[in-house]
Amino acid sequence: xxxxxxxxxxxxxxxxxxxxxxxxxxxxxxxxxxxxxxxxxxxxxxxxxxxxxxxxxxxxxxxxxxxxxxxxxxxxxxxxxxxxxxxxxxxxxxxxxxxxxxxxxxxxxxxxxxxxxxxxxxxxxxxxxxxxxxxxxxxxxxxxxxxxxxxxxxxxxxxxxxxxxxxxxxxxxxxxxxxxxxxxxxxxxxxxxxxxxxxxx
Length: 201
Known about the structure:
This protein is mainly alpha-helical. The protein has one domain (3-198). It is 69% helix and 0% strand. The chain contains 8 helices and no strands. The chain has helices at 3-17, 28-33, 38-67, 76-98, 100-106, 117-128, 139-167, 179-194. The longest helix has 30 residues, at 38-67. The relative contact order is 0.20.
């Protein structure tokens, strides 16, 4: 398999087969909290794509040239969380300055990207990821995996937001409105994405 084939395999795996939200169940807090409106879901998705991509780049460099080089792997989680927190702070300042309405719509969920376990999960798994032939991910592979994982996160966030917007006009029992129907939808979407696991690439 050539490098383009490997990239296609990585894209299918990150977006559909091992989606961080629906297969690994990471990042459920913003997934359920921000998926009420399409515009806020799109803004959150773009922020997560940026943070996942940049976090993958910085954490790969920190892990390879600092933690592994000086035998400090036990500090990996702390170092990665600090790196992600700095990136989220940067994203928060940019959105607050350039899109105040989006900043208000995202509310508390924007700072929560700092503790979004999907972002941390991508960063940690990139350090251990290998191709089928056993070779470890390079810097470019790690960055691409972070970007594609962010696209997978955004895809399910937009799908969920689109369905929930439609359900606002549905005749649902009072007890099912809001979070209960959101949890049921999340389960049904997870089952739908589980079907991708049978693909042979």
